[in-house]
Amino acid sequence: MIALRLVRLIESHSEELAESLLHKLERSSRAADLKKVPGHEIRERVHEVYRNLSDWLLTKTDDDVERVYVALGRRRAEQGVSMSALCWAIIMIEENLWEFLEMEGMREKPLEILGSLELLRLLDQFFEQAMYFATLGHESYWREKQAEESAILAHSA
User: Fold this and answer.
1) Tell me, what CATH number does 80's domain have?
2) Is residue 88 within 8 Å of 28, Cβ to Cβ?
């Protein structure tokens, strides 16, 4: 399976990919809120995605993605990261992968294009789920905060 070979290439360059993404995030005005997150936390999260991409694409269930990304969305909300910055960071993780694969010349042969399309489908599915669940976590944090504030106001009245 060509897509699996491409994923293994990504995994073997996970450190390099994580570093290039971190530099892009630091320079991105759309991701400026991520400066509120400790650098090592972002580095570990991004590196984990790249290092274990085959697991995320091939063996993790929707429940696994939901569990991890709802928690991530809540964590970023607690840290004061805007939803737009969170979503932009997830988009950049995927874009960074495609830039890497293009630099590696992985789209030159017809069979590799087919493998890239297969990988694109899997990546899109994963990152769309990640963004959805991270958004759910982010929103649930703020709904709970609002409910707590309303309860405090009701008790003080």
Assistant:
1) 1.10.490
2) yes
